[in-house]
């Protein structure tokens, strides 16, 4: 019987790499993305590859996964796809929010702040709640989210996303604490600076960040999406059943090596 994983943000970057890796591991892939234009073309390439690897056990939905209406509309479909079987993984890999400073020429607005925290943080809680009520999370299921060193460093333009990441980490910790009794674990995976499309949206200086990271990282390179995918693959193994409420660092030691 096929085990299924659910990825929120599974078309590019870390989410896409994870979908490809878990497809190779034998999992069926259910994923959400919200892509238009050039990003949609990249998404289509990812979907085609995952679909081929899984022999058609691949379902991608191009809609706003952070919308509560989307959750309510698609969770019954997810249950139908899995045949009522609980999903092995719920991964939050949505990278969409406002990148601007709190002060200056274009200070972040309440609307922007609320949107960023909801999309990149709070939405994971609502997905988890609804999947749990629908009996789609159970013993052996994992809830995971992706975080970064921006959760404790102040960086140009990163304030709103930093707040969202901290919210997500707190939500994951609490999920693991409350649902651990059911054999459901929840952890954050902290990536290092990774040259992805999302990084180019955070800062115009992304190339400088990449070069700086190569110098300060103990392993003299940046994190890759495949590094993160491999870590998530390991965390799905039975040997990881007792890892809960934690932040797992996959950055070559970057978080111990100073600032950008």
Characterise the protein shown here.
- The protein is α/β, with parallel strands linked by helices and about 260 residues long.
- It has a single domain, classed as Rossmann fold, CATH 3.40.50.720.
- It is about 45% helix and about 15% strand.
- The protein is built from 8 helices and 7 strands, in the order E-H-E-H-E-H-E-H-E-H-E-H-H-H-E.
- The protein has helices spanning about 15-25, 35-55, 70-80, 110-135, 160-180, 195-200, 205-215, 225-235; strands at about 5-10, 30-35, 60, 90, 140-145, 185-190, 245-250.
- Strands 3-2-1-4-5-6-7 form a 7-stranded parallel beta sheet, sandwiched between helices.
- Helix 4 links the parallel strand 4 and strand 5 (about 140-145).
- The protein is globular and about 50 Å long.
- The N and C termini lie far apart (about 45 Å).
- The model has no long low-confidence stretch (mean pLDDT about 95).
Top keywords for this entry?
single chain, 260 residues, alpha/beta, Rossmann fold, seven-stranded parallel beta sheet, 8 helices, 15% strand, globular
Helices and strands in order:
Elements: E1 4-8, H1 13-24, E2 28-33, H2 37-53, E3 58-62, H3 68-82, E4 89-92, H4 110-133, E5 142-147, H5 159-179, E6 185-191, H6 197-202, H7 206-216, H8 225-235, E7 246-250
Parallel strand pairs: 1-2, 1-4, 2-3, 4-5, 5-6, 6-7
Helix pairs in contact: 1-2, 1-8, 3-4, 4-5
Q: Strand order, biggest sheet?
A: 3-2-1-4-5-6-7
Q: In the CATH hierarchy, what is the class?
A: Alpha Beta
What share of the residues does DSSP label as strand, in percent? Answer: 5-15%
Distance between the termini: 46 Å
- How are helices and strands ordered from N to C? EHEHEHEHEHEHHHE
Strand count, sense and barrel status of the largest sheet are:
7 strands, parallel
Average pLDDT reading: 93
Low-confidence stretches: none
Structural class: alpha/beta
Shape assignment: globular
């Amino acid at each position: 019987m096929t085990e299924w994983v659910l990825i929120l943000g599974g078309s590019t970057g870390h989410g896409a790499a994870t979908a490809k890796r878990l497809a190779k591991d034998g999992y069926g892939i259910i994923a959400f993305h919200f892509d238009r234009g050039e990003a949609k073309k990249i998404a289509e390439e990812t979907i085609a590859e995952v679909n081929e690897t899984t022999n058609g056990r691949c379902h991608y939905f191009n809609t706003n996964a952070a919308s509560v209406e989307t959750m309510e509309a698609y969770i019954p479909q997810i249950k139908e796809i899995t045949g009522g079987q609980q999903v092995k993984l719920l991964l939050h890999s949505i990278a969409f929010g406002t990148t601007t400073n709190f002060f200056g020429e274009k200070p972040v607005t309440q609307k922007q702040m609320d949107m960023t925290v909801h999309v990149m943080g709070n939405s994971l809680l609502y997905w988890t709640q609804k999947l749990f009520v629908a009996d789609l999370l159970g013993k052996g299921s994992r809830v995971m989210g992706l975080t970064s060193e921006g959760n404790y460093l102040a960086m140009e333009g990163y304030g709103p996303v930093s707040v969202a990441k901290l919210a997500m980490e707190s939500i994951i910790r609490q999920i693991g604490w409350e649902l651990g009794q059911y054999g459901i674990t929840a952890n954050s995976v902290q990536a290092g600076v990774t040259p992805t499309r999302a990084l180019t949206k955070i800062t115009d200086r992304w190339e400088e960040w990449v070069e700086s990271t190569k110098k300060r990282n103990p392993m003299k390179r940046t994190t890759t999406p495949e590094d993160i995918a491999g870590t998530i693959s390991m965390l799905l193994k039975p040997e990881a059943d007792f890892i809960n409420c934690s932040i797992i660092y996959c950055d070559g030691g970057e978080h111990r090596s100073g600032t950008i």
